[in-house]
Fold this sequence. Notes:
alpha/beta, Rossmann fold, UDP-N-acetylmuramoyl-L-alanine:D-glutamate ligase, Protein-Tyrosine Phosphatase, Chain A, ten-stranded mixed beta sheet
Amino acid sequence: MSFNFLKDKHKKIHFIGIGGISMSGLAEILLENNYTVSGSDRNSSPIIDKLRDKGAEIYIGHNENNITDADLVVYTAAIPSNNPEIQKAKSLNIQLMDRAEFLGQIMKGHKYNVAISGTHGKTTATSMLSHITLAANLDPTILVGGQLDVINGNVRTGNSDYFISEACEYKASFLKFYPYIGVILNIEEDHLDFYRDLQHIENTFLKFAKLIPTEGFLISNFDDDNVRNITSKVNCNILSFGINNGQIRAKNISFNDKGCGIFDVYDNENKLFTVNLKVPGKHNILNALSTICAAFSLNIDNKFIIEGLENFGGTHRRFEIKGIKNGITVIDDYAHHPTEIKAALAAAKNYPHNKIYCVFQPHTYTRTSTLFDDFVTSFFDSDQLILADIYAAREKDPGTINSKMLSDKIKEKGVNSVNIHSFEEIVKHLKPQLQSGDLLMTLGAGDVYKVGEMFLQK
Length: 458
């Protein structure tokens, strides 16, 4: 694989925040191509251990002394401008590049770039398409925002013109990409620490869609009004999908005893084939339809589409069954937006269970505050809700919002809800209540998955 933008002068690349799911993937791609890689992060992790094993030099903690002989420094959108390593790079006139631009430059070296965007479902749809392209032996390079067993991690370095990646809308980063195929799964309010309102978000997705060349393809969810609104304003091939609307449709839908969808795929009124998913929920039918459309755009044979989808058993942290203890099933999901929470709990309702005990960890103060009313009505499918404290991520506590405030409002809606501060206390609270046949479900983009792991270990 060639990286024309790096040329010979960029022999060593330093990543600030190298332990992040996307940054680590980019670092691994470079290591696979014999570049010298260094990086830093706040904490160690299995991802960092893996990069070290592959030859990366990694520092724990951000310090100006970490910047020594780097030719290029790459940083994430979450890194502030006063970071000591950024300041040191500037003082030494070392080239700086943000993660999205760096990824976009790598995309430039491929002909068939598939960029999968949307407020929800990006990781699952990217993983589904990864399975399909691998089944078709396209030898793709893959960058996914989760751990995918078929590629033994979150990245695969291929040797072809095919590149498959998530396209995150946070801070409009996906506008630095070069998609041949752009997928828009859905458009909703989120990341309101950056976006002014829904109209601002829609306009940004429109700009993303307009990056697609005229010979390329926009894959649009026509069940989503916001996606449909922008589709008519682009100048490329359009392939629409949906359960109720669109050219490529799912019909004759049923669910097996694990809540996984079985459906017929139609092109307008013509039945094409039947798919049996191994991941639960109606939302995953829409995710599958998006990847079917992308596969059509890449001229992949139907048999590989069916094989890929039927071999996909899920991505880590997406309705992941962590284990069973004393007849109690522990499921973890990354859901951190009201729509995602509703979809995850709806999938759980179709999974064999007696009661659903949900542990939710809100992610960022901004999201909790701006989507507060939506969160209040998101948990009706849980029998008991435990709210962990807010996971701050990149933010500081403003002192105006907390999990107890959210829990109290949810309780007013008739849901049995309580705020418990520590994971140890949550496990202690749950232990005498959980009975054989119950589900313990952890939801959130932070470290709430540890609750399920602690329960299984105790």
